[in-house]
Every structure is written in structure tokens, then in C-alpha cells.
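HUMAN: Spend a minute on the protein record below and explain its fold to me.
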Amino acid sequence: MNNETYLNIAIETAKKAGKEVLGYYKKGDFTAELKSDESPVTSADIAANNTIIDCLKTLTPDIPIISEETSAEDLSKRANWSKYWLLDPIDGTGEFILGSGDFAVNIALVENNWPTIGVIHAPDHKLTYFGQSGAGSFKENAQGAKQIFVSPYQAGKPIKVAISRRQELGLMGQYLRDDYAYEYVALGSCSLKNCLIAEGGADCYLRIGPTGEWDTGASQCILEEAGGTILSSNFDPLSYNLRDTLMNPDFISLGDQQFPWRDIVIPHVASRKL
């Protein structure tokens, strides 16, 4: 199979899982509980996870899978994988529970430790974002698909910062230099905020707090193909399948890379040792 075929498989699988998730969401017929890390999980997450894994194992039986909702192999077993699927069945489970609609199915194909295909399907918004290395990124809605790009830097204009709906602005303020003007854009789901940057609706997003590689894999590909990038909060590249842990450090999603980010964002040493 070539990567275009893998992309089509990821898109159709994400939409199939999204339809199932939307059924739970519209009916309000789901259970919710806290996992050991105190993050929420619902019966819809588990159903979507099972649907995605069943589809991918049927269509690409030789490609291993890492999912937020499934125990991962030890690094000693997965370190030699040349490619694998990386899944978040519902990114934004908290938003799903609260009913904001800002949740999405994330599927990435990681090759040689870097995401080369990314698909993010937001069923309640009827939107699908997808990207493929060397082929660009696109946003699909009922009118069709169009290529997307980050917003070009314009000196003197307020910097649009994507934030979570319930994020404390004071927390962000300590990482942004106060000699610039900012405009905050609230949106749920880590991956949807990265897609907002990819389509030019925001300039940056700072994530201070726990995320997994499944939260960034698909949107990393989409954002980079649109002209942006994601870096750790100390300006180092993120990594995929290179460490015992699959948890990310704190990170910064950036739009136009010509923008003087180092003058605006204050790097810090994350307190979480990963």
C-alpha cells in the first residue's frame, strides 16, 4: 500500500468511529469514569477505540497500533517498529461529557518515529482535517475539501492565542511576554486547537499539562504540512516512540515560523520529568 491508500483508510475509519461517537453524544447515553491518571473516559471512547482497531487490523493487519485506550507495548518491543498507527479515539473527552461539541477522533500513521499522515474528524462540527507528508493539509466540510495554511505573520497585529474553554489566562500570561498584544480564542480539544492554527484562525497554542503522543501525532502532521510546527516548551522537537513513556512534555504549537516566537514565548523547564 502507498501513503495515499493509508490516508484514505484513516479518513474512512475516523468517520466511521465519529458516527458511532456522535450517536452516544446525541442520545446522552454513555457512562463516564476517571482513569488512574484522573483523566475521564467514557463508554463512547471505548466503543470508538474498538471500532478503529477492528478496522485497522482488518485493512492493515501488519501495522501495529498504539492507542490512548489500550495498554502499549514496552519500548523494548516497539522501538524497532518502522511504522504504526497512533490513535486517540476521542480527543476532548471532557468536552464530549460537557456537551460543547469540541471533540474529535484522531488517527496518525507514524513512520520512522514521525507522523506522516494525520486525520482529525470532529463529528459534531461535521469537519475533517487531514494531512500527508509532502502533500499538504486540508479541511473538509459539506462543501468539499480545501487546502489550508497557517496565517502569515503581520507585525503590529495582536497575536491570536488558542486556549481551552476553561483555561486560566493567568497561567498563559506567565509564559507570554507582556510587551505584545494578545487576542484569546477559546476552543476545546488539543487537536482542534492545532487545526485552528493550521487553517489560520490562531497563531499559537501553549499546552501546560499532561498530554500523550496520541494527542499531538495527527495534528502535528496537519500543522506542519500547513506551515507550522509543534515544539516542546523549551523549543525542542517533540518525539514519537523514542522513550519509555508515551506522555508529552509541555509544548507550544506555532503558526508561521517566520514569526519571532522566541521574543514572545518564554521557555520554561517543565516540572514533569519525562
User: Anything to note?
Assistant: The first strand starts at residue 32 and ends at 34. The two ends are 35 Å apart (CA to CA).
